[in-house]
Queue: 4 jobs
Job 1
Amino acid sequence: MRKDWKLHIIVLFFVFIGEAIGVKQFNLGVGTVALFPMLYVLLMGGIVSFPKLKWMNEVQMKKAAGILGISFMLFVAKLGSMLGPSLPKIFEAGASLAVQEIGHVIGTIIIGLPIALLLGMKRESIGATFSIDREPNLAIISEKYGADSPEGRGALGVYICGTVFGAIYLALLAGFLGSLGIFHPISLAMGAGVGSGSMMAAASGALAVTFPNDADDIALFAAAANLITTILGTYICVFFSLPVTARLYEWLEPIIGRKSKEAEK
């Protein structure tokens, strides 16, 4: 503990600053973007961990990552304590929870794969678009193709981007969509459960700010959707998403692949 005094002081300082700033909402005309303490802390953490600044070394960053895991355990434990009393609500929404999982799987393939090919990616696009590429998905790609394969590099690239920008992006998107008044807050909460604890926490936090009266239900359904995605998502990726993405790549790459079109010219 004493050896990491610098790390603990930095974290405490960031938390203090984030809470002092509080929740800020900005009206963009068509909707509202909500900024809350977690986003500020994420940004400040990203700044101090920038290698050229040399404020934190790699050892401290790894220790911080370990502490983050413990923090999410506490967060998940809190959500678990809320799940039990609310199981009837979850069972009532059973069909909705199951159907919304389709978007988590199909969306990355149908939308992401063509865009990746148009941008010039080759087999990296398979690993980058068969899922949102969290830890279980990296394990699947590594087992199937190898960590140093093009598919593995594509998955790792999305994993890094998701780790750095995912929580911020989903928080802004969730707050904006919630402010439009088009979607029910519970529907947005289900969509927040993408299989990543940090992304779910950021998105559900933004929704709780937008819909304060539904904050408990938002946390509940986001946690339920996230749990379903984590449990079922691994099997869906192995038996459906990855094979389908690989097959679609073989079909689409000669047609819309940027490098393939340039070769024809």
Job 2
Amino acid sequence: MAKMNFCPQCGKSLITKFKDDRERILCADEDDCGFVHWNNPTPVVAAIVEHEGDIILARNTAWPEGWFALITGFLEAGETPEEGILREVKEELNLDGEIVELIGLYEFHRMNQLLITYHVRAKGTIQLSPELLEYQRKKDYEINPWPSGTGKAVQDWQAKRGIFNEVIEFRK
């Protein structure tokens, strides 16, 4: 998020101060305005997409060559996480999905996100959205999890299946 300098409620300067045992951004006019930027994490849905017996990993157009990950996206207003991930699978891969299970909730501190991750079984013919450049098909045992974000979900999902692959670092 871009650094805020002025209060979005009253337009006065913002200050950094401890409130509720955390450093927060507040309006300098604490008495009359009282604005606090709580910096709550953004909920993001993610899916291990199973299609025709393979797991689909995708590469975003903004990522370096060789970087592939799970299908992810932001929730829309009024949407449940289950609705959101099925919409994302449809939008990004053009596949119709059904949720097999909730894998878990994961913190992604670098992006200030809370990842809600599912295993989704999908049908149809893959057609990538413009935000994806390419995809890979992998067997569940061929995926090496990565150390942050959705990689933790992959690691947990594999562990439930008796798969304990080495965690790898993304390389730029």
Job 3
Amino acid sequence: MMQLSRRGLLVGAAALAGCRGPSQPKSPPPKTIAAAVAGAWRPAADRERDRWRHPAESLAFWGLKPGQTVVEFWPGAGWYTEILAPFLAATGGRLYAAHLQLGEAPDPAARDVVEAYRARFARGARLYGDVEVTAFGATSGPVAPAGSADLALFLRNLHNWMAAGIAEKAFRDAFLALKPGGALGVEEHRAAPGGVPDLLASDGYVDQAYVIRLAEEAGFRLAAASEINANPRDTRDHPFGVWTLPPVRRTSPRGEAFDPSFDRARFDAIGESDRMTLRFIKPA
């Protein structure tokens, strides 16, 4: 399997296992982004992270509108899906979730994440609408019908795709799915400017200029950059890369057991990572 950490997959599976599909939404169908972010159906742990991820501001920046068709690449446990799906269902839109490509012999952890995601959002179909689960990976086909999407989203996944050698394909697949004039929104852990880009993103941080170059090579035009998700406290010099910080909070190298003696205080005080927030346009 591609170099998405097994611990990351297991964290995703655990997050999904702890989320039950809602029987009834406790608030009206969300007709605005703000209403979707404030939705009572969202797990408390997800809402707690809003102060770091700024979903309302980010989605507005990327240009999310009522009734759009959206492609969310690698939605993981569904943190953003919990916001996107109800909003799109309530406004006549559509959501494609381009999840992990499982292949003929899938990694069990990856399979569990995808199956739990499917079950989670199927259980809440009245709220979430019909979330169309497709796949993205090294040999995957179209993530959505060509030219059908208004917005595609890469949400803290580029570092995984760089490690797996499929970042260029992600941009190509998004470009194919988008309508002319459609937008690509990117949120990604941001490396310090001016250094030599690590093309494998081994610490999880990605050079912003490199992201822009990949997008432009796929045919996109940079429309805007925002500091919505900036965190000046993030020094980026963490012993286990970006995964030292919340929400992963790693205490030992990849694949090793949790280390209860590791002093987490200064890393927890930083909060979640410093991140670039970019919007690209597919030229009309």
Job 4
Amino acid sequence: MTETTESGVAVSGPALPGPDAAFFLDLDGTLLEIAARPDAVVVPKELPDLLSRLRGALGGAVAVVTGRGLAVARGYAGVPDLPIGAEHGAVLDPALPGAIPLPVPPPEWRRAADEWAAARPGTLAEHKTHGLVLHFRQRPEAEPEALALLAELMREGDRGFRVVPAHAAAELRPVGADKGGAVRRLMAIPPFTGRRPIFIGDDITDEDGMAACAEYGGYGLRVPDDFAGRPALVRAWLGRVATAVSGNGPG
């Protein structure tokens, strides 16, 4: 099938899945366009309705799995009872049995991150419950310094964290927290159990989720490859999925 960009250029997209699909969706760069700063994201007004339609078509088997914090992710999605794996799976809502206790960054690490960003205009320190992120999209030359700071913090002792690269950012994340874990835990419960999972993401942090979907006979779709790097095309395609699965029109 094809979708069309605003400029009228036809873009090939993946085939539509069947009614046994389950979706695990990243936010930034997938459902939402990347912004210069993480707090400058613009959420399309149609996104909550799209997610609600997709959930209705698939018996509720739709979840957001994101690096964002839970409150931010839920606010962006705009669907109150939508399952969300936040902070790369470190936080899951609804909470499920079997959660592994995860560490939190000590206060001195958070202070060091804030001081680093304050000394470098155009950067930002983002704090999460179980991690922190140094953003440098507006100042890409700061990447080596960001990685050096996180490496320095890690040398203070093994506190159960690892450094993970992201889109114009460097993240300190608990060992054992990844999007694949969120997929596996949700696939163990209704309405996801027994379905064919599909993970849609745009960068390296989504690969764990895609690998987990493959374990259940599913697969991953990469926004740069399958949707020409355009979240608008992802949303349009998901709308077609909802329509086709609901039987309300052609795919």
